[in-house]
Write a structure and sequence with these properties.
Layout lengths: L13 E3 L18 E2 L6 E8 L22 E2 L1 H6 L1 H8 L5 E9 L4 H6 L17 E7 L3 E9 L8 E6 L4 E4 L5 E5 L6 E9 L2 H9 L13 H24 L13
Antiparallel strand pairs: 1-9, 2-3, 3-4, 3-5, 5-11, 6-9, 6-11, 7-8, 7-10
Length: 258
């Protein structure tokens, strides 16, 4: 037996939905309380749903009793401050796990490549149940910024780059992809990130919102990509040497790698 996956994501592992018209939406993300949480760059997070309704971002498997990234509990004070964002997280009709707003400071392409990471949303997820995927809803208007997806962390030939204007909505199997955002703005980027459980509810939502998997990747100068690859390996080696100096050996399979 295997997990239940959404057919819409089967081909590429991601889909892009129709853009959401945010013209009438309040900027509720500015009213939320943020906590430090390291992700792909200089980030803070505002938890909307967590393991037990506390304002924290830890994986559900790091609590007692541990569970997969499902059945999130709304953080009461945060949800009160951001009812529109809560409704947007619920609009898929699927089970919600972790839900939070991310604040990302401007970075470089090399930074984003170095910070590529895979999620572990499906740890402890029983066979025969829905696979957990992530929705990325851009809240600020960052048309020059890119969501970067790689199936192979070190192979730029597997890279897909998707733009992030206001209202863009992208659903990704983030356990399949290494991912990060290259934020080319001058102010922080804000996005709503929601864990959803795959199943008929999510399938119906993706169909209703015209999910597209054949989306053109934004082209980049090959020289820029080559420079970022060199910088990636330089930083990895620098980190390896730093751990070595402390008497620790860092392997590629180590959760702290790079």
């Amino acid at each position: 037996m295997s997990h239940i996956h959404s057919p819409a994501l089967e081909k590429t592992g991601y889909v892009v939905l129709d853009r959401h018209d945010q013209a009438a939406d309040p900027a509720e993300w500015l009213d939320l309380a943020y906590v430090p949480w390291r992700s792909s760059g200089v980030t803070r997070f505002a938890p909307l749903a967590s393991y037990s309704g506390e304002p924290e971002c830890n994986g559900f498997w790091n609590h007692t009793p541990p569970r997969t990234d499902k059945d999130g509990v709304w953080v009461a004070e945060q949800a009160t401050r951001a009812p529109t964002l809560v409704r947007r997280a619920q609009e898929a009709g699927a089970n919600v796990g972790r839900c939070r707003v991310v604040e990302l400071q401007p970075n470089t392409y090399a930074d984003a490549i170095y910070n590529l990471h895979q999620d572990d949303n499906n740890r402890l997820n029983p066979d025969g149940t829905g696979w957990v995927v992530r929705g990325f809803y851009n809240l600020t208007d960052d048309p020059d910024s890119l969501l970067i997806l790689r199936e192979d962390r070190f192979d730029p030939n597997t890279e897909v780059r998707l733009p992030l204007p206001a209202g863009s909505r992208i659903i990704v199997d983030t356990q399949r992809f290494w991912h990060a955002v290259w934020h080319r703005g001058s102010a922080p980027r804000y996005a709503l990130i929601t864990s959803w459980t795959s199943g008929p509810e999510l399938d119906a939502h993706l169909a209703a919102e015209h999910a597209q998997s054949d989306v053109a990747s934004v082209p980049l100068d090959p020289a820029l990509i080559e420079d970022a690859q060199r910088e990636l390996h330089r930083r990895i080696e620098e980190r390896r040497r730093a751990f070595e100096a402390l008497g620790e050996v860092l392997e590629p399979t180590d959760p702290l790698w790079p």
